[in-house]
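Write out the 3D structure for:
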Amino acid sequence: MTDAPDAAPRTPAVARGTGRTRGTADPVPVAPAPESAPRSEATVRATGLVKTHRGEGGAARAVRGVDLTVRRGEFVAITGPSGAGKSTLLHLVGGLQRPDAGSVWLDGECVDDYSEARWAVLRRRRIGIVFQFFNLVSNLTVADNVELPALLAGTSPRKARQESADLLEELGLGDRARSMPGELSGGEQQRVALARALVNHPALLLADEPAGSLDSRGTREVMRLLNRFHRRGQTILLVTHDARLASAADRVVSFFDGRVVDDADLAGDRTGVGPGDRTGRTAADRPRRPTTDPDEREARGDPDERPDREARPERDAAGRGGRGVGDGGGVSSLLELKE
């Protein structure tokens, strides 16, 4: 009796983890194990988000069925009047609040079922958050405030100290490392908060009104720093009512009464490059938006474009024209800032 032939030739067994077949010295290619979740071109994807706040005055619909996508390396500003739901939307993306309905994906991974503990780990490693009122630990030094997230994420004390020192030096705070937060100006405290948010090199930076409590000089500092890290490829989702900050973004999403009412691609408007063409490209690869705005030119940090301070035209607090985004200026005001 003869054995029936196999339907297909058998593949030699591979010794696990060696890349070699048993009984032979010839190497056999071993395919890498697939990742649990392939990296997505969209760092953030939110669909149908709904959030209702309930208090003594009744229910308030803060977010009403919002869809939002932020591509990797993109700088998106969310603008709108106070009470429109901007900060609530940012908190939903960062896991600081849970939606009543809808879903959130980060780098292609659905995070709807994450526990509070898992969200905490995710924020330490992949999400940096900057708040309006800094939220620094008052009884820790500047250096310790910046090191703390790195230590919580498992970084060695030596490496955490080095990362902190490097960031503080880059942000012009190297000589304030041993100072206490109360000894700093508002702009300096916000720079410390930015260093703390970036110390773990997060894939996503969430900024909630980072210049809301700063004067015009502090606002320019924050704008300059956000631009600097964006040019390196940092993905940024910014909530602001300040037209100057919003004008630095690639896209401006206008928010009103819990809904998206406009989504303007400022980078495409000024360069002719659409969102699809910019997918997967870092900020450094993208064409520069032409502008004659002195504040933005200075924020970009280009010596050849930095204007003579004495030649600057006088401006009011809202930028050019006196109307900010929250005051009804809208996207047209942002485009005026570009011209």
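The radius of gyration is 24 Å.
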